[in-house]
Amino acid sequence: MILVFLLHKFSQMKLIRTFLVIILIQIIFPMFFPERFTLEAQVLCLGGECSNIPFEYQVLGNFAGPALDKIYTNGFLRSMGENAVLQNINSNQAGGQNVPSYRMGLGYTISRGQSKARDFYYENSELRNLPKQGVAASPSISFTANLGEWIPSAYAKRWNATTHFFPYEFSEANIPFVKIRNTEVRGKIQNYGVVFRYYPETSGFSYGFGFLQTNQDLYLSSYDRRPTQFRIDGDKRRWLGVNDLFYQSRITSFSFDMKYNWTIGFLSIVPGIGYVYNQGFTSLQVSRYALISTRVNPDDFSSDPSVLGIRLATRYDHVSSFGYGSLGFRLGQGNFSLTTEFLAGKEMQSANLSLNYQF
């Protein structure tokens, strides 16, 4: 009964008051928890040629700054993280119609951002194969329950709770929209969340709020098929080596949305708007280990063997929020329904297709 009372109080709040609270959160939180972008670099050089590389170039020159500070900027890392959040929201498959009892759904969600990393400094090496645009995709399974099945109350029947979860491991063979040549790819996605949705008695509108967790890991590894050129203090050199990248995101989100359901026969059209607040981090580590040529002869790797190791790490701390619009379509026949929903935020879009069974 306490839960029913709390849900009742929540539904009585004016929509304008809810959006004012969200706007205040967006203004106040960054004041106390500002967004942070950090960059660390370690460079190790072994061999006789290291004496011909000025120290400032080893640490602050051609290697550290341009590789991440100018390529994987904080804007790009933020875009990758928010892309994953938008995909996670769309994977919930809550819909815009009140489910009278229970429903199971299986779907697939993709998301793609428009924000890109800048041109690669190492364009002439296999590092050019590393991703420059945020993309997220995974299947998901959802379960929806009407709270009236658990709480004997007419008011509770106006509420749905939808959870979703699907651990997903991928490789270069099953990543859509990403073409990475000569690169070993592996990773995993573990996204989950719960959304509570309220359906007023005599209105096509519905209001939802949810809590979501977005977890993503991506590993990339490649090697140079041939020596490639780079410069140190104006001198042309060539190097030959291996490259590794590890991307990770851990983001907790709170979402609020409003949808309107319009049904004509077996077709339902559900437009809506939403807002999400995020807190967590997106991190990236890049390493390269390579043989370097001599200063005198760019093709000479053997007379004075030297090895250069570079490890760059960056982290973007999310205390961010964004709004989005949605448009869903539902085709229903008996207990089965086919649903697709499109979500669009600033510089990112997501699409979901799911099959649902109501029982």
Automatic annotation (TrEMBL):
Record keywords: Membrane, Transmembrane, Transmembrane helix
Membrane-spanning ranges: 15-33
NCBIfam families: LIC_11975_fam
Stated name of the protein: Porin
